[in-house]
Amino acid sequence: MSDNAYITPKVLQWARESARMSLETAAAKVHVALEKLVEWEAGSSLPTIKQAETLAKAYKRSFAIFFLPEVPRDFTPLQDFRKTNAKPLGTASIFIIREVQQKQAWIREVFESNNESALPFVGKSSIRDDPVKVAADILDTLQINKNNYLLDGPISEWIDKAEARGIFISKTSFIHTRLKLDSEEIQGFAIADAYAPFIFINSEDWAAAQLFTLVHELAHIWIAESGISNEIEPELKHKGKTHPTELFCNEVAANALMPVGEIKKLGSSVFSSFPEVLKTSKKLGVSSIAFLVRLLNLNIISSAKYHELKALADNAFKDYLQQAEEKKAKQKKQKGGPNPYLLRLNKNGRLFTQVVLDAFRGGFVEPTLASCLLNTHINKFSKLEAFLKL
């Protein structure tokens, strides 16, 4: 038939497998029997152009890629610093990693062509350094002002200061409404590039965990170790199964968010009851569990006191999760919800959005590419800009 797409079968198979999508799921996307998709990947029959276009969209690949004679060279996979028994990365995780890599590759090329200077803090430290000193350098470099924690929240202060220093931050919990990220698979990742370092944070996680993830990934930037992270917050169990790089970055984050000097200034009453622990941990922007682990590691509380307070913290966290689910369910029933352009701005990152818009306004990037990079129609750019000014 004239509308057949003469695709390369092995490229079609590669596109599906690299999206971590099963034959069954992919066949459902294009509304054909599983056997038919198997035939296309084997080369014994051909999809129509419309069917091939549908698959390209589902796999998050360009339609033209299916017609290449060989499987193309994809982005280099990020090192997986997660535990060996971690939940396998699914389609959503693969898509967000690929999307951020594409953005990072574009911005790096732009900066290099403009002869921008490399950022001095990327790779400034190593895993052999003292995590206390690395944490202090991060705080000093970013000029974190903890007095601003009460304004827009701790994570806003950290993101604003990181982006002001040239670190791109992307934060989202979904690819689209039907494809959401799983915090059990991925909490964050870092691309430690000297010109355009990128950090991704899974916002499906709760606020305190997001902040710890951000600072953990900043440590990855400082030691120039790109990679995927999960189960980031400090813990006492299974440390032997955690990658040394992750243990180091956790130590850096703990020292940056809960400096020993600040903790030792607190009165003993802070450590005697769970309400005080909860109040203080919120002030610091960390979870009560992370705070308790920190107190135990600093020998400020005994093991018995830790387990007593940890049991209360676990129960409080269960209550929080239940309340969060109830809140989500209530929001679903109500009309409206978060502004889609604000969500898109967080996903693209404020710094990245500003760079693309500036390049577009200056005529340095084609409209189609600018629209693709921001996942926004050109005539809607003003809506993104409106949130940039807030």
The domain tally reads 3
Strand content: 5-15%
Widest β-sheet, arrangement of strands: 1-5-4-6
Task: Characterize the largest beta sheet: strand count, sense, and whether it forms a barrel.
Answer: 4 strands, mixed
What's the rounded overall pLDDT mean? 90
Number of helices: 18
Q: What is the C-alpha radius of gyration, as a whole number of Å? A: 23 Å
User: Helical content, roughly?
Assistant: 40-55%
Number of strands: 6
Uncertain residue ranges: none
Terminal residue distance: 54 Å
Class inferred from helices and paired strands: mainly alpha
N-to-C SSE string, H for helix and E for strand: HHHHHHHHEEEEEHEHHHHHHHHH
Shape: globular
Quaternary structure type: single chain
Can you lay out the helices and strands and say which pair or pack?
Blueprint: H1 9-18, H2 23-30, H3 34-42, H4 49-59, H5 91-113, H6 131-142, H7 149-152, H8 154-164, E1 168-172, E2 174-176, E3 179-180, E4 188-191, E5 198-202, H9 207-222, E6 227-229, H10 244-257, H11 260-265, H12 274-284, H13 288-297, H14 303-333, H15 340-348, H16 350-361, H17 367-374, H18 381-388
Parallel strand pairs: 1-5
Antiparallel strand pairs: 2-3, 4-5, 4-6
